[in-house]
Input
Amino acid sequence: MSKKPHSHTTAALAKRRAELIADNQAMRERIRLNDGYIKSLDTAMGLMDPAFDPGTVLPKRQYTKKFDRGELKSLIIRTLKAADGGPLSTRAITDQVMEHKGMTDDCRTEVRRALLHYDVVEKVDGDPDDHMEYWALVGYAATTKQANDKGDEATDLRLLK
Output
């Protein structure tokens, strides 16, 4: 048996460590450069308006796109359609959307915002004791298309307005 039984593993780990150290050095350099740019901008703003406080400028929020264009609306409509016209809570709709999409991050904010802005979805009265919002479809009808090559029937949702 050799003195270094895992030399190939150790070498691979050492290589990865070297890559991470190089990444950290590059990030530190970029931070140093950005700090210089920020100081230059603060100086320029101070020259143009001495009363301006650069500390009031907040960092720009980074958004991550969770859904493709029209995907969330389609998922919400299909979820409500599967409920056979009965109202569903925001939480139930969100859970089904997350399950269909295979998401682990909560998307309740996006679903609620979408529900408030879709004209084919209506907020309905629910149990006042559970403090939940319930939603139902209005103005949609489903017609069945021909079976696809897998033998599944596809549903075509059409706007009736």
